[in-house]
Amino acid sequence: MKKPIFVLIDGNAILHRAYHAMPRFEIDGKLVNAIYGFISILFSTIEKFQPEFLAVAFDVKGPTFRDKIFEEYKAKRVKPPQEFYDQIPAVWEFLAEMEIPLLTKEGFEADDIIGTLVRKINGDLGTGEVIVVTGDQDTLQLVDDRTKIAMPAMGAVKETLYDQSAVRGKFGLLPAQIVDYKALSGDTSDNIPGVKGIGEKTALALLREYGSVKKIYEIVEKNPKEIEEKFSKSILQKLIDGKKEAFLSYDLAKIRTDVPLNFKLKSAVLHDFDADKVIKFLEKFRFKSLIKRIPKSKREIGQQEALF
Asked: At the top level of CATH, which class does the domain 177-253 belong to?
C-alpha cells in the first residue's frame, strides 16, 4: 500500500524562483512569467510525488516577530520590482480554482507555517511523509526521517531532494544544526549577524566538537580554557563578545513550529477540483501548454470509473 504524501509548497520561494528563471513574457501588456513558472512547478510536483494532500504557504505584508526582535532583519535584501508583486493575485486565484489551501498568518513567514504543519500533521499521516517544495535552504532544518526538502529544477538550476543523508553530505551537519550554524556564522541574505569574526569553517568546527550553540556557551561559561586549548584564545574572546548576537541569530534563523493555525489535513486533499474552471483560467492567460498537464480531478476519475 502506497504511503500517503503531504506536499507543502513555499509559495513565495517558488514564485521568486519562477520570476527570475523564466523568460519574460507578457499577456495584454502584463508580465506573467512568474505565474506560468509557478503553475508549471506545481504540476511537475504533483506528477513527480503523486501526493494525497497539498497546501501552499505564503508570506503576507507587514512585520513579523523577527522584525520586532531585530529591526535590521532582511534590511539589505533588494525587493523585487512591482511587476513581481502584481503576479501574486493571479497565483492565489489559480490555487482557489484548484481548491488547494492557501495558508498565511500575520506576523509569521511562510517557513513558520510550513514548520508548524510539518510537526503538527505527522500523526495524522500515519506512516506517510512530508515533502516541502521550496528554493529556500533555511527549511533544511526541518528535515527528519519523515520530512524531505525538494528544490525543483528551474532554468539552469537542477532539481535536488534533501533527506537527512543529503543534508549531512552537503553541509557536514545534521539538519537541526543548520540553525546553530547560522547563529554562529550569520546569514548575509537575511542580514542575520551571527558572531563577529566567526566564519563558516570555524562555525563548522565548533559544531562538530560541541553539537550546538547552547552547548558551546555552556563550555564558554564553565570551562573557557577548553575552548582556548582546542581552538584559540581569539575564538574564545569572539564567542564571549558575541554571545548576545549568537542567541539573537539563533532566534532569527529558527523556523517556528508553534504558529496558531486552524488547519485540518482533510482540507488539503488533492484532486478535488473542477477541471473546467482550471482550464478556463489557463485559457484566460493563454497557457495552452499547461492545459494538457492538468492533474486528473476526482470528478474526472469518478466519471471514468462510472463507465466501466
From this structure: mainly alpha
In percent, how much of the chain has pLDDT > 90? 81
Convert the pLDDT of each residue in 242-261 to its tens digit: 999 999 999 999 999 999 99
| CATH code, residues 5-173+255-300 | 3.40.50.1010
Closest CA to 45 of 148, 114, 132: 132
Cβ burial, residue 42 (10 Å; 0-12/13-18/19+): buried
- The 10s digit of each residue's pLDDT in 133-156 is 999 999 999 999 999 999 987 767
Q: Where are the domains of the chain?
A: 5-173+255-300, 177-253
Closest to 216 (Cα-Cα) out of 189, 188, 187, 236: 236
Give dist(CA 187, CA 178) in Å, integer: 11
Enclosing H/E stretch for 133: strand 129-133
- pLDDT of residue 109 exceeding 90, the answer is yes
Measure Cα distances from 148 to 16, 25, 233 in Å. 21, 33, 40
Query: What is the pTM assigned to this prediction?
Result: 0.92
